[in-house]
Amino acid sequence: MSLYLLDFSAVSGLLRGTAPALRRALLDEPGRRMAISALTRAELAHEVARRSGDAGLALRVEEFLMRVEVLPFDSDAAVAFGELKFQADLEDAEIEAGQLLVAAQAIAVDAELVTLTHWPDGLRRRVRVADSG
Questions:
Q1: Integer Cα distance of 133 and 130 in angstroms
Q2: What is the pLDDT of residues 100-110, one digit of tens each?
Q3: 60-106 pLDDT, tens digit each
Q4: Would you kindly state where each structural domain of the chain is located, as residue ranges?
Q5: What is the CATH number of domain 3-124?
Q6: How many angstroms separate the CA atoms of 64 and 86, rounded?
């Protein structure tokens, strides 16, 4: 069974309803194992805290978290990050460190990264980026 690691941009799009093609793709393929990084979980916690008056968001996040696995960021992911960050530096790629960290975790756990962020071609060769619609 394939593992799909969703980054914050993908989760945010799903929760806000701004990524209907991604939602359909995830729902249309039974057997997809979906996960998020503990780093993405932290970003979700920050967003809920930042928008503390939005009870609907807190509920949507809670419901979403019941459907996905939260993977710890471990030593293998840290090594993959170092290599990926070096490649990004060589290519002068403008990708935020947080996105590189989650992408490195996808590499470490042999998952496809699900993102709404554009990835430069050179880095796409290192990270398996799922077609997110």
A1: 9
A2: 999 999 999 99
A3: 999 999 989 999 999 999 999 999 999 999 999 888 999 999 999 99
A4: 3-124
A5: 3.40.50.1010
A6: 33
